[in-house]
Amino acid sequence: MSDTYMLEATGLTRRYGGFAALNNVSFKLRQGEIRGLIGSNGAGKSTCMDVLTGRGRNQQGTVCLNGQDISRLSERERRAVGLSRSFQKTNIFPELGIRQQVQLAARKAEFDNTEEVLAELSLTAIADRTASDVSYGDQRRVDLALALVGKPKLLLLDEPAAGLTIEESLAMARHLRNLAERWKLTILLVEHDMEVIFAICDRLTVLHLGEVLTEGLPDEVRANPEVIRAYLGSTFA
Ligand SMILES: Nc1ncnc2c1ncn2[C@@H]1O[C@H](COP(=O)(O)OP(=O)(O)OP(=O)(O)O)[C@@H](O)[C@H]1O
């Protein structure tokens, strides 16, 4: 990990009428860091990911990627400069071939490393099958492939382990950790599975009611009484 900040988010805010779904949220991610973004349902995690990627209207705040202010760029332009996102609900087209959709994502990212990504995620052997024809675990890896194509600098992951078994989730977590190191990726990870969060995150940011409740090392966060009260309960205390 170096001293460079790959992401500097300052004052991120999104209001719906008088309600602030996200209120003045700021954080910085060092290059190579895996940051967990956690918080209870409705805390503002998805809204935060939306604002970072430029999805939707009516947002305030500044987003800098590797020193470049990208706040005024469109979603597509942000993708092309290295900010990529995978979604909570699978983003894949069931009837399209796996290789075909990775190639389509490559076109959007304006950089084609389809075969490398397929190999990295052990998808080469099934790349000519349609997504509906492979297992759910394989589909989650296709989702990840779509986000990884183009070699992004910053990867935003929305619950990559959702619906997987504990073994599959932990295997996915190990794979991500390893991949982040080899590809020099910085990752912001939204995940409700605390096993996954504590297995791979360097630091955690906790959102509560649209604001940052606290930020720190995983062990500090899990021992923080406010976090236990607002989110973790006694399970991880
Ligand atoms: N389009 C919208 N209009 C009005 N309120 C919205 C809209 N989208 C989200 N919200 C509200 O903003 C708040 C934050 O929602 P958000 O989806 O970001 O939370 P979250 O932390 O991602 O939750 P979850 O863990 O359930 O996905 C919630 O109170 C939600 O109801």
Automatic annotation (TrEMBL):
Alphabetized Pfam families for the sequence: ABC_tran, BCA_ABC_TP_C
InterPro entries: ABC_AA/LPS_Transport, ABC_transporter-like_ATP-bd, ABC_transporter-like_CS, BCA_ABC_TP_C, P-loop_NTPase
Molecular function in Gene Ontology: ATP binding
Residues covered by the ABC transporter domain: 7-234
Keyword field: ATP-binding, Nucleotide-binding, Transport
Family the UniProt entry places it in: Belongs to the ABC transporter superfamily.
UniProt-recorded name of the protein: ABC transporter ATP-binding protein
Origin species: Neorhizobium phenanthreniclasticum
